[in-house]
Design brief:
Elements lengths: L3 H9 L7 E5 L12 E2 L9 E2 L3 E4 L13 E9 L13 E5 L11 E4 L10 H6 L4 E4 L9 E2 L10 E3 L7 H9 L4 E5 L3 E7 L3 E2 L10 E2 L2 H12 L2 E8 L3 H13 L4 E5 L10 H8 L1 E6 L2 E2 L3 E7 L3 E6 L3 H20 L8 E6 L3 E2 L4 E11 L2 E6 L8 H5 L3 E5 L5 E2 L4 E6 L11
Parallel strand pairs: 5-6, 12-15, 12-16, 13-14, 16-20, 18-23, 21-24
Antiparallel strand pairs: 1-11, 2-10, 3-9, 4-6, 4-7, 5-8, 17-19, 19-20, 21-27, 22-26, 23-24, 23-25, 25-27
Helix pairs in contact: 1-7, 4-7, 5-6
The chain binds adenosine monophosphate and magnesium ion.
Adenosine monophosphate binds next to helix 4.
Amino acid sequence: MISVEEALAEILSHVRPLSLESIPILESLGLVLGEEIVSDVDIPPFNNSGMDGFALRSDDVAQATGNVPTRLEVVDTVAAGYVSASRVESGHAIRIMTGAPIPEGADAVVPIEDTGDAHRAKEERLAAPVSEIEVYVPVKAGDNVRFAGEDVRRGEAVLEPGRVIRPQEVGVLASVGRTTVRVHRRPRVAVLATGDELVDPQELLAPGKIRNSNEYTNAALVYRTGGVPLRLGVARDAAGALSAKIREGLEMGADLFLTSGGVSVGDYDVVKDVLGHEGKMQFWQVNMKPGKPLAFGLLPGGVPLIGLPGNPVSAMVSFEQFARPAILKMLGFQDLDKPTVRARLDEDLTNSGRRGFVRVVVAKREGRYHARVTGEQGSGVLTSMARANGLAVIREGLRFVEAGSEVDVQMLDWPEGMAALL
Ligand code: AMP
Ligand code: MG
């Protein structure tokens, strides 16, 4: 049996980041940047006010106090989006709003709260703007001014290739004038279930049949990981049926195949035979539980195929260990690890001696993560996966872990807000 790490390393050695394409910036969310982004402007583009208040000359108010205010003549009002035509001479001030350009002659802004206008309502200020203002505090040159280029200088690189695009990166792209951006394209992932027993959710559940859940789980996992699922439906447990589906997927331009089922040692487990025939095939027993059987191979054109086990929990756990990193690598991600937290076990836990991935629910109590097993751990019990938000990772050889011990938990979802389940 090979280890989880060996299987993953072999799979990743056959996977490369996909080509770059140019797409609208909002659609790049969650994808990986493939170019350097340089700003076409200073940001902010001009000196502007950081406060609602009065633009003035700091020398004028050097002696201002609450008891002996400095009186200034208000010569204009400037709102964000406009430029004052007036100049601030000594003894003058211009009423200014946040984001408005600092008028010529002024070198600082005093906030409205530090002036005689502090207690006048907005309506009152608008209806009867004062022609004179009392300033109660001194300000230094530059106070409450946001200077041109203080965030970004024109010509400066703001984002580098390899950066994962989050909402803040989308905003940075907009602020430097980009409408499109080059990113690694999303992999097209063929999702294929195998099994004569499988029926679709809307079909009659005849004797001996079960509902095909893996196709849906796998397609959902592909979406969540950033890929585009190509749903190929179900291949019957016959070599011809499976070969036909694989050819269909190749014609649709699949970058990766995910099959489920047919990889154990049963008489009708045809995935490994077909793979061997259609391409180059490796079949492994991976030292893990659940998810021991795993097929991996290369189809014509070097398209990788990951043959996940049929049991719904095994399929999901194997997806997380092998398919997710492969998809992320195609997307251009460098960090392929599943986010992991250390959590304290609330109960004893037994393990098979293989690498264990135990379904747990993690929640934070008194500043510390706690993990509790979600009941029956059979590899067909998908509802225990639905109750879980993490997989406790138990190392090989360890058959018992005592309550109170700390374990690594791969998070399927972030634990905050799950306290009700614990
Ligand atoms: P196999 O590896 O094909 O023998 O499948 C192992 C177990 O998983 C069997 O009990 C199958 O019925 C079940 N199974 C296989 N494929 C699916 C699927 N797409 N949805 C739900 N269960 C499945
Ligand atoms: Mg089967």
